[in-house]
Amino acid sequence: MPDLYQVDLLRERREQLGLPEPRPVDARALLRQGLILGSLAVGLMLGGLGWLSFRLWWLQRAADALEPVSQKYVALQASLEKAQGALKGLEQGNQALVEQILAVPATSALLQELANVIPAGLQVQDFSEKDNGIVIKGIAVDPLAFSRVNAMALKLSASPLFDGSSVQLTKAARTQGQGQSENPTQTQSSRPQSVSQPPLPSQAPTPPSAPALSSTQASSSPQGVEFELRVALSKQPPQKLLPALVALGSRGMALRVNQLRQEGLLP
User: Fold this and answer.
1) Within 10 Å of residue 245's Cβ, how many Cβ atoms?
2) Confidence of residue 69 (pLDDT cuts 50, 70, 90)
3) 125 — phi, psi (to 5°)?
């Protein structure tokens, strides 16, 4: 009966080639071999899973041991950030204090510098501060009145206490004598007449024989140039201007700058 269901399709081919008949395979041996290989694979998987479980347990234990250290680190980090914030606030306060201290103008040095740049024959009549600068008004007397004004402007440009590029001559106009008026026939004026002023001690009195000038003639003779100069103060910090301030006698500013340097608040 079994021979009826067994069909060997390659028998004739084997006979032609002279090959031996195939030997039957033991199914039990194959089953045992499959069971062994399968068991080995399952064992390897279970072993890997056990090793991973042990590794996870060990890492968790190490993490638990490091938890206090982590908490200390977080606390120290928070303390450090708080200290940095306090330090930043202190630095900002110190910087504001330094700016306030250095913002006190060196008035004595400024006045001394103005005295140095005013040439002979030029009289300052008004001095005021405006828009972080100064406005100087005055009169330059003849001869060479315009040259005197120009010389003062050049000296202001070269001064370390002023911004040389900001010097502006906003007004320069010739003036008449102190008895000038818009109506030449008018004999009285709000300004005193030049002929009525008393002679200076260094001047000799007018000889009696000298002809006296009429008010119209006195008012028609030019006496000088009214000018207005504007210049901004230097934008350089006082510590860079320290040599010039010391040379001009501003000891207060020099002491402030030196004290701030000693405290480490200035480079």
Assistant:
1) 25
2) confident
3) -100, -25
pLDDT digits (tens, 9 = 90+) for 170-224: 988 888 654 333 333 232 333 333 333 333 333 333 333 333 333 333 344 347 8
Is the pLDDT confidence value at 225 over 70?
yes
Q: Could you give the percent of the chain with pLDDT greater than 70?
A: 76
The pLDDT assigned to 3 comes to: 52
Instruction: Report the length, in residues, of the chain.
Output: 267
**Residue 244 token pair:** 């010039």
- Overall pTM surpassing 0.70 (yes/no): no
**Helix/strand/coil (H/E/C) assignment for every residue in the chain:** CHHHHCCCCCHHHHHHHCCCCCCCCCHHHHHHHHHHHHHHHHHHHHHHHHHHHHHHHHHHHHHHHHHHHHHHHHHHHHHHHHHHHHHHHHHHHHHHHHHHHHHCCCHHHHHHHHHHHCCCCEEEEEEEECCCEEEEEEEEECCCHHHHHHHHHHHHHHCCCECHHHCEEEEEEEECCCCCCCCCCCCCCCCCCHHHCCCCCCCCCCCCCCCCCCHHHHHHCCCEEEEEEEEEECCCCCCCCHHHHHHCCCHHHHHHHHHHHHCCCCC
pLDDT at 6: 61
Distance CA 228, CA 157 (A): 15
For the chain, list the domains and their CATH numbers.
Answer: 108-178+219-236 (3.30.1360.100)
